Amino acid sequence: MTDYSFLVTGASSGLGLEVATRALEAGHSVVAAARDPAIAARDHPEIESLGGSWIQLDVTHRDTKDRVATVVRENGVNVLVNNAGYGLLGSLEDTAEDEFISQIDTNLFGMMRCIKGALPHFRSLGGATIVNIGSIVNLTPFPACTAYSASKLAVEGLTETLALEVGPAGIRVVLIDLGIFRTAFLHSFQKPEAGMAEAYAGGAVDTTVSFLAGLAGKQPGDPALAAKRIVELVDGTGLAARLADKGYGKCLRVPLGSDSFKAFTAKIESLDEVRSSLESVATSTDFAQA
């Protein structure tokens, strides 16, 4: 059996904490990353009691790449779970440019820094796994999620292409399109400092923000079960056993949550529905063949 050593970013709460815990319970070693590891260790003693360790990591810092490179090398890490991130909910018009940039910096560039730090070590191992946490917004749009969707759809594109770049080196890349799970995400989402413009009051943006705020604490997804599935995807056990060899170009995208799977199915059906109608338009733009 392969020995798996995890580095989990954003591990002080929510899905990250659950992944770290389930990986330790499954017998793997874990380095849990948090912005304030002292507080995280105090609030979640189970990580250290199960044999894990905490490190300080803020993925928005420019030294993240070097920090991750050192951590993965010194701890023999062969699984990177890129979970760190947050949500900004508000219309594009109400979102300041620096707020939009901050959303992209954390959710996309932070992930990029971690991956770049881990890759040299992963390549030297001849095999490793990178798990990038995406979102249901990759499958279906939500008003008020413009900045968040931009960050997560960019993560999708990064993940798909990265899999092709590093797959030949034996590095598996997996994208988790996460549905709405019962974590603190909806309690802690940020809103634009400008507030909501009158033009959006009572409309789709307002309705979505109110709906998500009201859903906090009542989300359908169980994060402990999502974490268990993620660990199984890595080590090829449980419900994910038959997917163990399908990470490189075969089963890159994994929806988690019944809502995410429903959106996944609906997206496939909607694309298929218009495919034949678009064929004549799409193929009409090539140079004429002699």
What does this protein structure show overall?
The structure is a single chain. The chain is an alpha/beta fold and 290 residues long. It has a single domain (5-277), classed as Rossmann fold (3-Layer(aba) Sandwich). The protein is built from 10 helices and 7 strands. The chain has helices spanning 14-25, 37-43, 46-49, 64-75, 97-125, 146-166, 185-188, 204-215, 223-235, 258-283; strands spanning 5-8, 29-34, 53-56, 79-82, 128-133, 171-178, 253-256. Strands 3-2-1-4-5-6-7 form a 7-stranded parallel beta sheet, with helices on both faces. Strand 5, helix 6 and strand 6 (171-178) form a beta-alpha-beta unit. Helix 4 (64-75) runs parallel beside helix 5 and helix 5 (97-125) runs parallel beside helix 6 (146-166). It is globular. The protein starts with a strand and ends in a 7-residue tail after the last helix. The mean pLDDT is 89.
